[in-house]
Fold these 4 entries.
Entry 1:
Amino acid sequence: MARRSKTNRIPFAAFRARAAKLGLQVSWLMLAAILFAAYRFSLLNDPKVWVPSLLAGTGLLALSFIRWERALKDWRGDLFLWLWLALILAELTTVGAVRQLSPVIFALYFGVVVLSAALAGTVPHAFITGFVITSYILTDSNFGQSLEIERLVIPLVTFVAVAIASSMLTKEFRRETFVGIERVQQLAKREADLGRLYEVSKTMAAGDSLDLVLPELVGRIGRYLNAEVGAVLLHNERGQFLEVVSPIWTAGHALDVGGYRMSLNRKGDIERVFLSGIPALYTNLDQDPDSHGLLGELGTHSAMVVPMQLEHRTMGVMVLADKADGEFTRSDLEVLTSLAAPAALVLAQLERFYEAAETSRRMEELARMKSDFVSVVSHELRTPLTSIIGALATIARPELAPEQPAAQELLESARNQADRLRRLIEDLLVVSRIEGQALPRHPEEVDLSRFLPETIAVIAGADEVVRVQVAPNTLVKTDPDHVRRIVINLVENAMKHAAGSPIEVVGSVTGDRATIDVVDHGPGIPPSERAKIFDQFTQLEPSATRSRGGTGLGLNIVRGLAQDMEGDVIIHDTAGGGTTFRVDLPRVLSPRRGRRSPAVVGR
């Protein structure tokens, strides 16, 4: 009844299916109106009324069982619509011959015009309108016996006006309906695509190995498209060949192919798709299998091959072959292409993950080698250095000391440098143990009011500038060796960078935490430098600090020891100028070892 392009045939059929169902209801109402009017005029026994009404009712009942959504997709639907309208017009024309019912039939003719506008195209609608007008003229003139042209002008003009108006309104309504149906279909397609992508993403996220992920991925996509064979071939950039990821998926089972490789110099179908980057659909492969490369070797009849592309890079190809319920279609190829794109993205992320994991593994190995090297070298240096320090101490005894002042100065310098080297070796050993998480921890009960002054007393020159503030009987359970090294390093650091200024060491306990503050009143540390002062071998103002000594390991050791004891080190400004290092530790340290994330240094 109406010709439509292939693109909008489905929405037009859906629209007409809705109109047909509504039209059937209207037709039943028209039949009911005729029978009611015949009842009012006592005409139910007239054969001109009950015979066509009975035939019309039987036809409408039969039409009610038709599945219009399916019928209107081909020529059968148009045939049923023509029969329907012919049935209605035949009834109206026959019943209209009864003079008493002509006003009712006249009104129902308008219903037929509106109904045809909804069900038919423009040309069929005009044809049906002309047929209605002719039928009305024949019935009104009692089939040509008393034709009065003047009396028919107004009804004819009204018919034409109603036909034009209903056609325009129906056209606009049909257009809006088409848009709505197409949107629903697009949403349904997108929902199906998103569902498939979700399943693909779950499959890709289920493992961290290509050997595990890809076969499951191909199998899931193969089940979507009813394919019996599926495989993924990845591009090896070094060897310039395609390698089949083993195993491949065939008839629902995994088949090990043992690292099958395909040179890109071959001219098979798969190679051409990879090089061109254009998806392809192949049929009748079994007629000449030798010319189709791997597809022919697999003995497939039809296949889809799509490139797995990410931006401008083709990572490989995905292959599905032999559809179980027929032949692959272009729609199947579009679905496979849409699924290959996110698969390529996830594969790229897996490659980056592998690269990052390999880099991390190598860095960890280098760090371990460095730590082992430092530990071994430090241990090897301690023995001869101990001998050197002992020999120098022996020579410095009064009975053996040289008499010349220059020789005494050289001896004292050698002793100082040997002691400096000893401390450097000890620092390297501590750093190595901290990095290897091999630092022992022995908690003991410590009274900070006695422990801190005793620790400060062993630092040369500290008694002149350092003042300790701690309440009596401030008891904590901690590792005294670790805390002693922390305090010594912080105080020596303050004496070096804030020379001539007073230094306070303040100990306190609050709740289940203990804090030790080392406060100086020197030039302070710029905020931009605080993020890196805990790094190894880092020194501020190198030209000045080199003359004062130091290795750049002191603060790194302080942070490592504090974290090893489940604590932290925080820097903030001292009121009036200077820097305060706050060491925050648990009041009771458990003997079990624990590691924390690196401290956040801030103001």
Note: The chain has three domains: 9-184, 210-351, 444-586.
Entry 2:
Amino acid sequence: MADSNEKNVKKRRIEHWQVISSFLAVYDILAIHFAYFFALWARHDFAYSAIREDFMYRYLHFITPYSLFCVLVFSFFRLYKSMWKFASYVELVRTVEACAITSVIHAFMIVLLFGRMPVSYCIWGAILQLILVLGIRFSYRIMILMRSRHSVSDEPGSRVMLIGAGAAGQMILRDLSSAKEVNDKVVCIIDDNPNNWNRFMDGVPIVGGRDDILLYADKYKVDKIFFAIPSASAEDKREILNICSETDCELKQLPGMYQLVLGQVSVSAMRNVSVEDLLGRDPIKADMKEVFEFINGKTVLVTGGGGSIGSELCRQIAAHNPKQLIIFDVYENNAYDIQLELKEKYPDLNLETLIGSVRDSRRMFQIFKDYRPQIVYHAAAHKHVPLMEDSPNEAIKNNAIGTYKTAYAAMVNGCERFVLISTDKAVNPTNIMGASKRLCEMIIQSFDAKIKEGRAQELVQLFTHEGEENADKDGTGEVFKNIKTEFVAVRFGNVLGSNGSVIPLFKKQIAKGGPVTVTHPDIIRYFMTIPEAVSLVMLAGTYAKGGEIFVLDMGSPVKIDTLARNLIKLSGYKPDVDIKIEYTGLRPGEKLFEEKLMAEEGLKKTENKLIHIGCPIPFDNDEFLKKLDALMQKAYTNKEDIRDDVADMVSTYHPKNA
């Protein structure tokens, strides 16, 4: 019973807007009375005694029913339910339409029911009615705007330069004008269209194009720059943002076009400009539908699944319905982190997280026998160039021999695709890490060649401890029949934000106040983002015919020195003033520039214009495999001259200390 009474009380409760609407209706009745009386009064030169009695009689007997009729029409047009503090063009049109309809009806009905009235009475009465009805409603909106602008002008705040006088820029400008939570004020607008120059948008001057950014940032004492051209090409965006980075201003931008389409353009949607935005390359646009149709319903193994590339692979694979996802990593903390993340996001995912090393052939055979993965993404590797120079045998054990053992286990256990993650450091390597990755590519090419020739049994199984993992236990060679595994490699540049990347290092150094260390002022690198790298790996799995080395067209290389300076600027500091840059010299095995492809290799196109296939350099597979067995033995005895053996196998390897 008490609940019923409480519901009735809630139903009977009158909201604040309903009270306001009631007063507004009363106002409209009075305003309409006044509008038409004033029109009649003005018609008789503002002399009440001069008004004809028949005109006055008709007015008095018609105006009250008419005003009540107006209230009904206004209600139909929702003029009593609109939120007038957000009144816009829509409310303006509705009000004009409602007043026009009622005014026309007034002119006809008063003549029809009571008799002729002066034409000026009908015209000026209609005009005054519209002014009074419209004025009271939009006065609230105008007062709020004036109050917000007044409050912003009274308090110190950031001065903003807006780049872009299009739809997105206008939305940002209006959002800033009405936002109470921020005290930013747009003081000037930059736009590349000369037709917009020396004009105003919502009272803010459009002062010039991108070449004038530095001039007007200084002239208007700008604190922040908002980039509001979501449709800009990557090249234009990079050029404009690079100009902006020359100022001391904080940079923000809209993430993309979809926000403009969805009407989600606001100050809160702006994000900080990152170093990735300054690289000047369109992101790779892959048709991932084909990729995920390939993955759907299959068992997928990711070695090195806890690393930067491996974990992103796991995320994208998990999102597209694999039969089972197996994360394999030697470092349990990283593997545990990605396991928790995926279990939380995909509770129904069939997920296995396994710990072990790709160097352990018994462990690899056990995993392939137990889980029978159909697709393998081999991301496990030692990648740190200077550390591998100090421990060359570990690079060979983990990268080359680990790849061989994993590939062999995949081949004899029915794996369909094996995708190796390689690097541009494998091209004309000057360090042992790059050379070891070139060995990995050659291993993949050898496996593919032997399988296509029907000679898979000639691939010697490498292990330092013979045991039950021997693939051909009975010596019949049956295990090597009908092998159809396709082996491919994917060659990457540097990955922004990955473990060991320069970006996290620079950020730590900036956070400590510097100095930021760059090995050489002229050192350049190719860069890509982690999602791009992963999409390329996934594409390799679908494009593969076997034996390819996929190469991404990564655009123009970037100077590391420029990257460091941009990152310092984006952090709000001045290079060499607030944060010093120190040049430490090239590290052991490091090159000034990386190459995407060996000079002897050609390129073939794929369906994606940014992805190419390198034509592998031919080599003697039998001789290579024979030397690989000897190389493994030498690596496991930790011989100091291991580089000489690698140079003998990788003709393009020229160690700097040799």
Note: The first strand starts at residue 159 and ends at 163.
Entry 3:
Amino acid sequence: MDHPPSLDSLALHEVCITLRCDGGCFWNRHCRGPDGPVFAPGEGGHHFDPREPGRVRLAGGDPFRHGDLVGWARWARQQAPGFLEVEGPAASLVDPGVVARLVEAAPDAVQAVLPTLDAAALLALTGRSVDPAALLDSLRAVRDAGLRLVVVVPVDASTAPRLYATVAALRAHLGASLPIVLRRVRAEGAAPWPEVDALAASLTAVVDDPSLSGSLSVDASANWGACLIPRAAWREGMVPLSRTPLRGGDLLAPACETCSLRPRCTWRPDEAPPPERMRPLSHDEALSLHRLSPHLSLEHQPSTQRTRRDRRAFDLPELLCFAPFTSLVMCDTPNAPVPCAESWVRTEMTPAEQAATLGVPVAEIEARNATSYARWGYPSFVPANEDWTIQEMWNGPLVLHMRRQMLGGGPSDRCRGNCRPMLGVEEPFFDALTRPDGELTPEIVANRRRLIEEIRDGRSVLTAHPLELVLGVASHCNITCGFCTGPMGAYGELTERRFDEVVELLPTLMTLSVIGPGEPLMSQRFPKLLAHINDRGYSALQVSLTTNGTLMTRSWLERHANVRFNHIRISLNAGSAATHERMTGKRFFDRLLPAIDALAERKARSDSRFEFTLSCVLSNNVLGDLRNFAEIVDRANANIVVEPMYGNMLGLSPYVRAEKLRALRDECAAVSEAFEVRNPKVSRAFRAMEQFASERLRTRRLAVLPQH
């Protein structure tokens, strides 16, 4: 099994519980031989802040065999770790008593350090004579005992040439699900970086062998720069990258100056790097690595210059991003409200983290959660808890946490790598603070001035209201697209209580965005809200809407002529009636085309500040129809969003089967080429999806794309 997805975000605390070991492994800095001391649980003054759960690794000479492992595990859990692992020499696992000790300690993972499965080499490297077959059986016994097993391969000049054979033996006996981690070992007194050539050859051989697919990564604290590993050897997890752009930092070598990966490169070796071996990565190479990282956006262009606008010109503080101070997103009611797109933010917060942010005891948070669960069926700090008002959400724990980190220089540790402001692609929240006063109402101007003053004063708790609100209004949808279940009536409906709160906020809002989670035009109260906006006017309020379009008509648009729509997105997901009907089971496509025509006409009017977008999720349903979809986009002069299918509902993902993925790649390439001159925007969108499919085929990653 793999580590949990959030493991790499936890700080690592390594705790040495013993210096005793019966072997002599050259990579083990804690080893003091068979007479080395052992430590009592808690000895050594180790302390962890329970408000910041981390990853605790019990290590040492040989903690598998020596020391009070169970006692240390009990002590570690009292420190509230987010993840507890034990690391020791794999050779010790052949002792059945060791496996019993591990089962009793019950860590979240067992990391077995194994340099090779060659018996003679194993004896020379560890000083212990172990039968490789017995060693493999003991690894299987650890896993059969219900423990999460990870094999760590220390890599130096002696083990790198054997790496292919080691991985092949582990895969043959333990399968592709076994996580294997490579950890660089510094060779004292040897020529610098002596293992690089052998490592490159071994990794290339591993990648070239389809039978060796599976989890193979490097230790983030002891690894190699991407410039030292040949592109043919790149695979998912091989090169750790920063989730957010790194600013500043010293150059490791002259090659770094022109390397397109530099903003994301986390390589900070503990010895001088070999400049003669370091090769700067091109734009395309950097983009290929980005696509191999689970944290980074498919759309990111590595060398794209940040669109950061001059804060001083508007007398604004030098914040990296203003979203936590301008915007509140509460469209998915079971999840915490966020300041921007939900897929851009890591929303999970423990009660301890929430308590620390709000400055209250953990017991108070737990009591609030208990009350909320009893009444609403959800924890306290989510919009589904209707006792929590929008103004309280605006100063909720997650938003406060992100504000404080932005005030400290940013980015927030909650920002995911696909955040477009973090990537430098755009600054969608800056306009809310810089739009001219003359375009706004006195209520908005007064609220915005108060907000800017509070930002300048460095306040995280705001009395000013948000300028932008993203709202969920519907719990049902009238179609089923195959790649989306929607809330199925379980959550998301705009309630009367929330309706009244939104109406109170409207005079100071600049933007109201409505985005599901069901189909907004099926909402019970959204029509009432639109009618209110239409009748009142709200001359400075811009409204954005995401819809499947099947209930939108020309007369509907005319009826809401006083609503200042600035953007409407239709999730089309098809290019023909046959495809749309196959996807939804309903004959609604003919309803969509007149709505698209009406939106195109609205965009064409010179006096209308209005954009609209047609989007398509690349599922098996739409294969063969992408050219037709592109034609509709081009004819309507619409913006375009083409995105991969996440998950694999009904087996519709083309990303899990090579023949489907090849077909998708080829079709995207053909559409991109057909529109290269005619509509570059359409061409670029499909070219990006072609490149993404090509990279997954090249690296043989036929797997479900994880949900945001």
Note: The CA atoms of residues 393 and 456 lie 22 Å apart.
Entry 4:
Amino acid sequence: MPQYKAPLRDMNFVMNEVLDYPSHYAKLPCAENSTPDMVEAILSECAKFCEQVLSPLNQTGDEEGCHWENGDVTTPKGFKDAYDQFCQGGWQGLSHPEEFGGQGLPLSLSIMKSEMIGTANWSWGMYPGLSLGAMNTIFIHGTVEQKHHFLPKMVEGTWSGTMCLTEPQCGTDLGQVKTKAEPLPNGAYAISGTKIFISAGEHDLAENIIHIVLARLPDAPPGTKGISLFIVPKIKCDPAGNLGARNTVTCGSIEHKMGIRASATCVMNFDKAEGYLIGPPNKGLECMFTFMNSARVGTSLQGLGAAELSYQGALPYAKERLSMRSLSGKKFPDKVADPLIVHGDVRRMLLTQKAFAEGGRAMIYYAAKFTDHLIFGKTQEEKDEADDQLGFLTPILKAFLTETGLEAANLGMQVYGGHGYIKEWGMEQIVRDTRIATLYEGTTGIQALDLLGRKVLLGKMKTLKAFSFEVLKFCKDKGLISNNPHRKEMNKFIWPLVKYTTNWQQYSVRLALRARKNFDVVGCASVDYLMYSGYVSMAYFWAMMAQTAYEKLAAGTDQPEFYKAKIQTAEFYFDRLLPRARAHAECMMASPKSLMKMKEENFSFLQ
């Protein structure tokens, strides 16, 4: 298993040099505690915890898995101790309000923390990760009493949280939810039903688990309009946080999965469990989107983490493993063969991993700024604008980065050849762990429908126009008609970026016109549209990184090779990866006829 090393140099490059986080943080109310020195210290300490505590548990946790017995779940050896250290370090409440015991730091900083945790040990990271979404939901939609009742313990990590959406008869289609909520004389509700695929639904890390549950009130209308949201604690407690009687919520079993085996995926049974309404009646799905969007941004980190960790495993192996001679002649004549890294195809795989990891990091850190504006925006207009842009970017981040992360994980395994298929190297675990990322929190297809159907077409392309305007303004300022001293070097990035971005806008208009006549156009085009959007978006950030690298080299630096590598990776991305967008464009603009005309009975002739 690759021993994770936090890529702090690259993280700082994106934060400080490309996206100018110091200026961003200086404008926030928590600027005092978000100075560059403070941020660097926080990330450095988190890196130590991830490298020294979490990374060594990654492979052993996978081998041992979780244990279920009579409703209780025991996590793998070392997980509880790691969680205690995590809580003692104050990491859970890093970006939550000081009023509830947190440190009040920007939410974007918590996302960077989560990147390191997830890359070092994704299974472990899911336990505190699920809590963050539950905390955000209570913070935004809960009453004053609910916030003070639940958040202090959750912020310190003594209590954890989950989200309970899916049921045996429904996955994404939450309009089919059957879990019931019956009013009780004390103002609470009796929650009854079964939820499945509940990550961290039961475990031995925290003393209490706060479930956020979708259920129906007795007079609820059918479908998604009749779903309400409830807080259901595993153990009841008084307003001071003192634990009382066990609630009637139990773990019926845990799933035996392809990957993330050290993360408990539970079947949760609610038998008239006491719960408390959060948010307005029958508006639970709207409130739950706070949780779901947190989880979707978090899941996009798994794609980034998979690319990063697999690259960290593949690169040293490619440098050390001797196999054949370079086609252009011996590179190491004193050895029996040349190392793998001299071969063009191995370099293709390594550069693809590197481009997806570093490009994905820039995309996520860019989006993370909007999360800060959501919390600290000075006006409602600023908050709404941030919410709109984050809503547009979220499906791209979640789906595109998990798909490319899975590809990168597979490439890392491929670099090892047959050894990659063997457990002891740990490369196959990255593939198994990452496979789920394209599925949970909405599959790639669901994210694609959200992007094209809701965010672009129903949103009348408002957010697409805003983002593409920003991209085209960058192109104008840095290449087309600018005084940029690096204009000549940058035009190899600028001209393709202009073409792909303007085509993005044109394709969107054409799909909108076609969809008026046949809405199947949206479903048939959506995944290719999302992947096109992802490749073009990442190209923008690689162009930004290349521009920054040219500026640093021109100014003089003691790390010239670092910046040269950025430029060379950008060149690889534009030459070898961005052209994939053309194929996605052809597919998304093709007629839906060949997809939709076959009769259902003609899919199989086994009889």
Note: The first strand starts at residue 67 and ends at 69.
